[in-house]
Amino acid sequence: MKWTSALAIFTLFWVFSAFFVLPFHGRRSDEEPSVKGQDHGAPSTFRPGRVLLQITIVAAVAFLIYYAAYTSGWVDPNVITGRA
């Protein structure tokens, strides 16, 4: 696998893992004091650095599992495309 392909696949895993990580963040503003005019469903505090780190960790784990499956031959492109 070329490094550019690996980077593209990792980027896809990174974007998809954002949808997995983001729902677990933030307490609702009705549980803590909020800024006047803030939506009640919005988190009262948001730490983007922490969220980005967690997204990166989840994406790295998922990519390592994918890469191990790819290099071990568990995922055969010919079987996936139906050519085998």
What does it look like?
It is elongated and about 60 Å long. α1 (3-21) crosses α2. Helix content is 58%, strand content 0%. It contains 3 helices and no strands. The protein is an all-alpha fold.
What is the number of E strands? 0
- Beta strand %: under 5%
* Low-confidence runs of at least 5 consecutive residues: none
Radius of gyration equals 19 Å
Instruction: Compute the average pLDDT.
Output: 82
What structural class results from the helix and strand content? mainly alpha
Helix content: 55-70%
User: Helical element count?
Assistant: 3
How does the overall form come out from the CA principal axes?
A: elongated
Major sheet, described briefly? none
Based on the model shown, name its key terms:
84 residues; mainly alpha; 58% helix
SSE blueprint:
Layout: H1 3-21, H2 48-72, H3 77-81
Give a brief description.
About 60% of the residues lie in helices and about 0% in strands.
